[in-house]
Amino acid sequence: MPSGGLVFQSVILGLLLGGLYALLAAGLTLYFGIMRVVMIAHSAFLILAAYLAWWSHERLGTDPLLSMIVTVPLFFGAGVLFQRLLLSRLRPITLTMMSVLLTFAVALIIEGLLGYAFTGTQRRIQLSYGSASIGLFGARIAVVKLIAFGLAVVALGGLYLLMKRTTFGWALRATIQHGDAARLVGIDTDRVAGYGFGLGLATAAVGGTALSLDTTIYPSLHWHWIGPLMAIIVVGGLGSVPGAAAAAVLLGLMQSLLQIPMGTTWAQTIFYLALFATLAFRPQGFFGGRLAQRF
Amino acid sequence: MRSSLRRTRWATALAATTILALGACSDDGGDGGQASDDPIVVGISLPLTGDFSEPGKGVQEGYEAWAKITNDKGGLLGRQIELKILDDQSNADRVVADYEQLIGSDKVDLVVGPFSTRLVVPSARVAEEYGMLFVEPAGAAKEVFEQGFKNLFYAAPAVANDHYNHLAEYLIAMPPDKRPQTVAYAAMDDPFAQGTAYGLKAKLEAAGFKTVVDEVYPPNTTDFGSIAAKIAASKADMLVGGSQYQDGVNLIVALQQLAYQPKLAAFSGAPTNPEFAKAIGNKTEGVLSPTGYTPGAPYESNKEFVEKFKAQFGKEPEEDQANAYTTGQVVAAAVTAAGCAEQGDCQKKLVDWVHANKVETVVGPLSWDAAGKPQGAHMIQQWLGGSIKIVLPEPVKEADLLYPKPAW
């Protein structure tokens, strides 16, 4: 029987982990929602952003969080270009399938370039507050995990407000719901899709920086992430940011709590069990579906 | 183009003639008269490209150092040593083809092993088939010794399960009220890493130490928060990590974040990595690790090895280089004792000799059981005052073991 302290500590760790998962998965659900693009390279962009954060810290001595001033706009621009120059050339009828192949290739290219530029050596950002933590009723909250969670709240909250409160957000949601109808009412869906893609990649810049604070990074790390992230967006309902966030927090919490009786190997399978259950019983996702339509 | 073709053809013809000549010589010399001045050719396949290219190159340097140092002293049986090294690209199929070629068509006199369990097992099978002595520098997993090989010998102090033996002896010898009472184990699901932690676990449990956490995690684990939470909640006196580099570091940082302070912490892989101290915020004081080799070890042949290796390569030898050099020393000892080094009956004499004798090497005296498993243990080193010092066993130690370890 696990002690109450351990369960409480695990709940805290699970919530923090879930927040990070939500941030990392947000972009994926946008791409799929807007244009039915399966973006295998999303996690490779996360690792790229993490490397840029590490590199700027190593070279300039600045806090890794400051790297976002450069990486967020850079990734947004790259996303727009990526959509306009590559994805928009794919034929709509085979888009989903071909996007898997195209973005798979992009992931390999990013991994190769990272290996070329920074070698395969494992890197970790050395922060003065890397092992610092705050006490809370006997449990400990690591400062870096709290910062990552904060980044997730700010990024996802901003994304939510953008989608709900701005004209661009309405246009984006209209494009997600019904592209043809959106075009009929005068929305330039191509441009909106480009910006939507840019937005997704901008979340990868934030997510990668959050990841770099508390993880050892190496070029092929993205393959470990893409599976769980894909599972999260399917469970959450493709195209639904709140759905992805809810699924991420729930799965993070379950992983953390199942770890106590079952150990690491089995606790990780919760993602795939949830994926199977979703596809078998509720293919539109447990938290998405109608919700996704309404955002 | 044409000239290069012709050159290739000439080279092939020359090589064929040489091989024929060598074959004839070794046939003649087989009966005992060792008047031949031909070099002793040692065949090796190494992963010089691919996954294991990093350690593969280290092993190559070790073999080259052995050949040079031996040749400078007049060679073996008065003959020079010549290495014939092929690249197997870290590929298990290629390594089999390479040893088939070396033994079957190139007719090398001796063969020695490649790097890593994954390549050692298939290549040892070829050597076994041809009845060749097979000393190898890098097959530490216990699977290697479960294949029924009769000609294989692992040229290092210990297999993974025995790496922590000296630490186990030390802890068991402590007064029961002073020693750590509870132990937490966290090991990567990998034959080598898990083997180290579980070897220690078996010995400590038998001596009455209580296991409070026993976690095994897959190699792709990225989040160590939950494992750390379990260990921190157990408040174990002692922490044992069956780890490689990345996971060891991630686990230590996660434990620091939870303010867990063990009295003793030992990790199999990470602490020897040059980046280790920086990665965990220089809070290394007192962290323990097993090691098979140290350039400072006081064994007679080691001083010569380190000095001459530095002269040849401009740096200190590490464990990979030392294991390859040790392999060479074992083969050389057998050849010197048996007075022969060629394929055929001689190989049986070499194998029998290694089975029956103890060899002095740069990693200390080595002897083997019937399966070729070395009968030793690794040294234990500890981070003390910002550098790594050998603390166990007693005869080779550079400093006293620090217990309990300072807070990290």
Distance between the termini of chain B: 65 Å
**Fraction in beta strands of chain A:** under 5%
CATH level-four homologous superfamily name of the largest domain in chain B: Response regulator
Strand % of chain B is 15-25%
Q: Please indicate the count of domains of chain A.
A: 1
Mean pLDDT of chain B: 87
N→C terminal distance of chain A: 41 Å
Low-confidence stretches of chain A: 290-295
CATH class of chain A: Mainly Alpha
For the biggest β-sheet of chain A, the strand order reads 1-2
CATH fold-type name of the largest domain in chain B? Rossmann fold
Topology (elements, then pairings):
The complex is a heterodimer of chains A (295) and B (408).
Chain A: H1 4-35, H2 42-60, H3 68-85, H4 95-118, E1 133-136, E2 139-142, H5 143-165, H6 167-177, H7 179-184, H8 189-212, H9 222-236, H10 241-262, H11 264-268, H12 270-281, H13 290-294
Antiparallel strand pairs in A: 1-2
Helix pairs in contact in A: 1-5, 1-8, 1-9, 1-10, 2-4, 2-8, 2-9, 3-8, 5-6, 5-8, 6-8, 9-10, 9-12
Chain B: H1 2-29, E1 40-46, H2 53-72, E2 81-87, H3 92-105, E3 110-112, H4 117-129, E4 134-136, E5 152-154, H5 165-173, E6 182-188, H6 191-206, E7 210-217, H7 225-234, E8 238-242, H8 245-257, E9 264-267, H9 276-279, E10 288-291, H10 300-313, H11 319-338, H12 345-356, E11 359-361, E12 364-366, E13 379-384, E14 387-392
Parallel strand pairs in B: 1-2, 1-3, 3-4, 4-5, 6-7, 6-8, 8-9
Antiparallel strand pairs in B: 10-13, 11-12, 13-14
